[in-house]
Amino acid sequence: MTRTSYVEICVSNFEQSIKWFEDVLGFRVVAREEDEYAELRREETFIQLASDHAPYWESERPRLLPPGQRGSGVEIVLLVDDVDAVYRQAQQAQAEIARPLAEYPWHMRQFWVRHPDGYLIRPAQRLLSVKPDVYLRQISAAFRGEKPKIAQELLPIKNTADGLAQQGDYLGAASIYEMLVTEIFDRSHLYSDEEEEYDDYDEYYEEERYHPEEEGLGDFVKGCIDALGNGLANEQADRVAREKIIQVLFEIYEHDIDSGSVGLAEKVAHLLVSNTTPLERQTIADWIHDLLVDDTEEISVANRQTYGGFLLELEKDTLDDETYLQICRETNRTYDLMHRLLALKRVDEAIQEAEQVSDSELLNIANIFIEHAQDKAAERLVQERAWKAQNRQLLEWLKKYYQTRENYAAALRIAEEMFRTYPHRAGYQEISQLAQQVGRWETLRPELLDFLNKTQNTSLLIYIAIDEGEIDKALELVKSESKQDRSVYGSWYGSGYRYGSIALDVARAAEETRPRAALEIYQQHVEWLIALKERKHYQAACTYLVKMRALYEKLGESEVWRSYIAALRERNRHLPALRDEMAKAKL
User: Fold this and answer.
1) Which of 172, 373, 407, 454 could form a disulfide with 402 if both were Cys (CB 3.0 to 4.6 A apart)?
2) Amino acid 492: pLDDT
3) What is the pTM of this model?
4) Which domains does the chain have, with CATH numbers?
5) Is the CB of residue 121 less than 8 Å from the CB of residue 76?
6) 295 φ, ψ (degrees, to nearest 5)
């Protein structure tokens, strides 16, 4: 056990005091230095005794009161597990009982006994209306054996806690909720082990990662949290009960954060912020501060940010600007830091902070600058980083920034630069729109087409030709390219030649103005599909045959179509599946 504080009292009779603590309160000596210092212990409580003749107390000796009066006005509270046993021992030792054993409204059973030097010692035992062992056994039983739904087994225990809360016994209720939630955390698989990965659904089940009996436990815990929140919101809950509820809720919050979170922390944080007094919020904030500075605790960056956000909410009404900024920096709350700096008009400082963030974070930071009417600063930040790193996301943001402000010339420069780095159909169309806004399209279009020709980006040239209605040019490009690059535009399979998907797109575009060219492409594709000899390919072939029939009829060449389809049937008479699919398509 780590002790962060302890009590040392100066006594007039060293040996008498040691014997008094041993005989009256059941302490035992665990350390001693001659007749000057001793440390005594009972359970997890330690008390240090010092003789008033010890050199350590020499400077204070003139101020010490006489024996019997030294402890006047001092009371030492000792929490014990069995106060009745301690009381009996004090009576047997004939100690001076200042106030007899009794129960008090603050959930304590206690008595006062006076030390020979006048110190009041108050042994106290916290009173609970519930017996933890009884409920722990019931909870354990719910997890043992084959149970269809553990949540259903636990429900009667929760109902008992709900009933206690309705009767005003919030401390007893909170104690049961705590046991339920803690045992679910310890015994269930509510938090999965992220280190174990499974490749497929079957493996997940084989390794017993799925536990149907645990369904509903997450909602059950949320129900306990809601009940604790209701107790905290109820003005009838006394101070001790409130302390217990706050402690339990914070333990749930901490567990959820540290275990990977299943969404409980956010719910708890809201309750602890909205249903607590300023003093209670400060206590919770102190707990978080202690966690963040504890060198023995390893806290991830993400968890530190979460704790920081909770801390800012708890202390938002009391923090001065500098303390707020300090918390943001210590917990990596960059966005909160930016908002506060810019609200304070400390723009240069905000820019310095923004220069340290990653490219992905910079976009959100830039939007915060704009939100605070610092558009030019946002533009400079993104501009410098975008061109230096050639980051596509940053360039895209910058382009939209200029478009929104109708600075089409600047947007065009970025769009053109991005297009030359990564040419694509939508990029060409966007450049066309922007260039027309500034009257540059007539001169820029030939430059872009020349660039695509030099880089041999024929596929994009084909789509541009389609989009601009130059069907003959698209057909010409497909025909010439298919001879040179069959891996992209077409391939020989057996006895048939298949045009690629680009050629089919050209065929669709050519149906109105160049139907014969479209027919040629469809015919080659149909014969390639049939050569693959699979039913799914026969179905696809029939789709294109229906298109071909419509085109022949449009040309007034129904007889040519009938001759073609009859010849196709004859050539493939040994393929019953094809005949079946053709019949379904009414071919």
Assistant:
1) 407
2) 37
3) 0.71
4) 7-126 (3.10.180.10), 129-192+213-276 (1.25.40), 456-584 (1.25.40)
5) yes
6) -70, -20
